[in-house]
Amino acid sequence: MSTQSSTYDVIIAGAGPVGLFLACELRLAGVSVLLLEQAADPRSPLKILPFGMRGLSTPTLEAFHRRGLLDQIVALQQAKDEAGTMPASAHWLQQQRRPAGHFAGIPFFAEDVDSTRWPYRLPSPAGFNLAVDMQSLEGSLTARAIARGTIIKRGEGVVAIEAECDGVTVQTQDNVYRTSWLVGCDGGRSRVRKLAGFDFAGTDPEFTGYSVAAELEDADKLSVGRTYTPTGMYTFARPGTIAMVDFDGGVFHRMHPVTREHVQSVLRRISGTDVTLTNLKFAATWTDRARQATSYRRGPVLLAGDAAHVHSPLGGQGLNLGLADAMNLGWKLAATIRGSARAGLIDSYHGERHPQAARVLDWSRAQVALMRPTPSTRALESIVRDLVATRDGATYFAEQAWGVSLRYDLGDDHPLVGRSVPDFELVGGARIGELLRHGRGLMLDFTSSAPHRSLTKPWRSRIDYICAEVKDHLGLSAILIRPDGFVACASDKPADGERFLEAMHRWFGAVD
Ligand SMILES: Cc1cc2nc3c(=O)[nH]c(=O)nc-3n(C[C@H](O)[C@H](O)[C@H](O)COP(=O)(O)OP(=O)(O)OC[C@H]3O[C@@H](n4cnc5c(N)ncnc54)[C@H](O)[C@@H]3O)c2cc1C
Fold first, then answer.
1. Domain FAD-binding spans what residues (predicted)?
2. Residues with CB under 6 A from ligand 1
3. Residue 87: per-residue pLDDT
4. What is the CA(314)–ligand 1 centre distance, in A?
5. Which residue ranges form the domains of the chain, and what is each CATH number?
6. How far is the centre of ligand 1, averaged over its atoms, from the C-alpha of 145 (Å)?
7. Residue 94: pLDDT band by 50, 70, 90 thresholds?
């Protein structure tokens, strides 16, 4: 065991997508980061297609747009689409009409969604959603983190920590490190969460879920797509990709080896067929356990991503939640380390992100409730199906599933405050997303008003000021944007100095 002499501003446990993105955000703000990852090899069958497919929602795509990562990620997926690897594996791509999302397997379609009801959304390259594979996503984030100077040590899992008021001592199998802040991004079974004594409250599972790749003797006995049966639910994509849920109270998960015989017997019971698995190529299990840390911070230890909240993968929101945690936490933690943050800024991370995860946990619980294999649930499902098929219904479900409804309660009743900033297009062609690449605050002045310009002067080391003509300013005179792209203050009046001043103190700290 060796004690490392260097001290880091931040140690992140876990080089999953959330730990990697957080490292990028912290390096963007110039703080030193050590990323400790338990696994020696980042590759896993769960990160490649078909099981590695992940749906990115609007806030994630906007975050990537704001950091200059979007083009690269879109290009990677286009290359996969052209190579034919994406369509081959997804059951919803083997159906006639391609859904834009679903609720408990009930699809909604983009053409039914009325996006005119989102008056503060302007057309943007970010779009609303995108399917990616986890390996490519992690690859892009790793390359960016390293290029920006993050030290990543693989095969070095955190095994012990000692947290004091002025920092944390972090122990791996071989080394001891010292840091001012430790962030646990080490997944749903987070060691950091347990070692630091966080409460993890929530509900126990109702089912064991299975992700299976198999060779089938008689695949025609299964229906392509999602099928509810009196004993559970399965989805099937040719030639042999199966997902299914077995309402066993979650008892099978992690308790028994997943054999071909077991998977075949569960599949036969759920599908009500005598389908035969000739070869089990891959199988993983999961549950609908839904838990959340009651606090995201204990002294110098913070949690983000699955370490802070777990729920079933139904509806695919866990990754998006975690990446939004990283975008929210990065600039606040960096400002706290630099000493420019007002007292309490770091705790707004919990204040803003905890309710969002709580909402997603409930969203996933509601889907579980709609999947139970009972006659009354099927009756309820048929009513929800009718509602989803209406324009109001499709718009509501898209709003929730795509993350368009995300709004932080920042205590200001202007309808834009706390929301993601619209992607205003400047007359010269640049977009707001591109102006946020440096991770700094931004005052956007549409009226060239002298008061707004002089207001920002004392904060110029933290906030950019741009007086710009935009194609559509949505009736606003000025807008103050946080480094994560969320609106801190907005006004329709020619000058609204007091409100802007207050917001600048609140989000960008005191100035001499
Ligand atoms: C089948 C399936 C489909 C899904 N589909 C979607 C989807 O479409 N959209 C979506 O948003 N989400 C989806 N999710 C959820 C999403 O994959 C997770 O929420 C996301 O991976 C969480 O990222 P993370 O970085 O927080 O944790 P992880 O990805 O779990 O990464 C944690 C990392 O920490 C490392 N680690 C563990 N212990 C230690 C330790 N002691 N020290 C150091 N490192 C450690 C691990 O090796 C790992 O690399 C899906 C999940 C599953 C299972």
1. 8-364
2. 13-19, 36-39, 51, 54-55, 157-158, 185-187, 191, 211, 286, 305-306, 313, 316-320, 322
3. 47
4. 14
5. 2-201+291-401 (3.50.50.60), 208-288 (3.30.70.2450), 432-508 (3.40.30.120)
6. 17
7. low
